[in-house]
Amino acid sequence: MQKLILFFTAILLINCSYAQTLEDKADSLILSEFKEANGPGGVFMIARKGQPIYKKAFGMANLELEVKMTPDNVFQIGSMTKQFTAIAVLMLEEQGKLTVNDPISKYIPDYPNGANITIHQLLNHTSGIKDFTKMKALGDIAQKEMTPKQMVDFFKNEPVDFIPGEKFEYNNSGYVVLGYLIELVSGQSYEDFIVKNIFEKLGMSHSYYATDRKIIKNRAYGYHKKSFGYVNKTVINFSVPFSSGSLMSTLDDMLKWQNALNRNQLLGSKETQKAFIKYQLNNGQEVEYGYGWHLKNMEGTATREHGGSVFGFKSMGVYIPNKDIYVLGFSNCDCNSPTQLVRDLAKLTVKLDKPTK
């Protein structure tokens, strides 16, 4: 009995030492970048086996009201929205309402060259269609309320960048088309589909389709940094980034999302895994992108990654499947990118990770 007590005491001490070391090193990493206690800040979380082992906030959520950041603040997550759009498409496929090999002309008959562009190519950025964020005319619509059809019409007649399947090129337009397809196939608005089939189902009660008008508890406000100081973020109508970048969430809700994917709460395992395959181009070359995630590696260990950038906000998430480690960072100033920090925190966590048997 005494040996058992000594054994579990030793394990407890090891775990406490691990947690303290991780906290100290993580704090040091983050504070090397997020240095201003009274400037815009960020929130960071490290989770292991589905549970947070580090979660902290830095800086201010609102400069004018001098409100400090908390780990519960709600952030715009930018292109991390693409994960939700991709899984929504796979949910519709599992329901038999579409297949990823369908040409988009099946749903949008007048889309130029739509018979040769598949849903699959929209999902993994190999469609060749013009990215609307690179169009000079974007400023003309940035603050207008656009329907999904109007957004698709905005870029669909632009010259293509390459033949479908010829190369990988990150593309926001493809994910706007996917959002429109979700609406056409499901009979619901994109917002309603995501809220009812994902947020509500998973208990993600602090996740939203972005809005500047609705009162959102614990909202973090977005900022830009100029030579003379900080200014409020540029206003954009969220109907423009739409299904490519218009969702909001929190650290805890995003952990619910990651855990749900791991536990196949939204899709069967076979369908879920389609999001995490490195597909090939026409010439057989492998693409390091699945459906909604970059598929990379960190010092030989496979990772699933994605960041986001929208006026006033930046986000980044890294998941390490073979360790079940999830690292997430949000910033409320587009002057502070959490991308490299999150990767460094992931490396640190793996290095320190000594799971008990």
UniProtKB/TrEMBL annotation:
* Positions in coiled-coil regions: none
Q: Which residues form the signal peptide?
A: 1-19
* UniProt keyword list: Signal
Query: What is the superkingdom listed in this entry's lineage?
Result: Bacteria
Q: Which Pfam families match?
A: Beta-lactamase
Residues in domain Beta-lactamase-related? 37-336
Protein name (record): CubicO group peptidase, beta-lactamase class C family
